[in-house]
Write a structure and sequence with these properties.
By secondary structure, the protein is α+β, with helices and mostly antiparallel strands. It has helices at about 50-55, 110-115, 140-145, 155-160, 165-170, and strands at about 5-10, 25-30, 35-40, 45-50, 70-75, 75-85, 95-100, 105, 125-135, 150. Strands 1, 2, 3, 4, 5, 6, 7, 8, 9 and 10 form a ten-stranded mixed β-sheet that branches.
């Protein structure tokens, strides 16, 4: 299977795992040897970025628009670790920045949060705690078992739509009305 890096993983309606039900996950890295890592884009917490900054004791906080952003559950793995999805631009490079595509990057270092607290940094970002992970061959098997649709990621869906619209919008970007799919199976 080709690499699914920079693809959306869209949960099929029958996927009942509470971590992924009706979810969209951005695959940040995928290879046959190493498996896959992604950030789920649809599970907002009841907490704000401002609360996270307070918890991390980042004192330099100004009244930046970023503070009102929701905090997401990026997946069930290492939920005490933060990840920030943002546009991949030359001026948006921090210590822990890794390129996903020409349009997207992910940063996991504290320096981006410090810049966001100062009102600097990317205009668009999604901040998540934890990530989703699959061992080698696991994701491929789940796709074969009809647990997921997948297709190219669209930054507009990530940064411009509310979380509750991302699942249907990601499927629609593939030409699928996911609300019409009631069960999946093999013929």
């Amino acid at each position: 299977m080709q690499s699914l890096t920079n693809h959306f993983l869209i949960a099929m309606p029958d996927l009942e795992d509470p971590n992924f039900s009706r979810s969209v996950t951005l695959i940040c890295h995928h290879s046959e040897d190493e498996g896959a890592i992604g950030i789920t884009l649809t599970r907002a917490t009841d907490h704000s970025v401002e609360e996270l900054l307070d918890q991390l004791d980042i004192q330099e906080a100004k009244l930046a628009a970023t503070h009102a952003l929701p905090l997401y559950i990026g997946g069930p793995v290492e939920q005490d670790r933060g990840f920030i999805l943002h546009p991949n631009r030359k001026e948006y490079q921090w210590e822990g920045t890794e390129t996903i595509s020409d349009h997207l990057a992910i940063t996991s270092s504290l320096d981006i949060l410090e810049d966001l607290a100062r009102g600097k940094g990317p205009d668009n970002c999604l901040i998540a705690l934890g990530y989703a992970g699959w061992s080698s061959g696991q994701l491929e098997q789940e796709i074969t078992d009809n647990a997921w649709l997948h297709g190219p990621a669209d930054p507009e869906i990530i940064f411009s739509l509310p979380a509750e619209q991302r699942w249907t919008a990601a499927a629609q970007s593939l030409g699928v009305d996911i609300r019409l799919i009631h069960s999946a199976g093999h013929a």
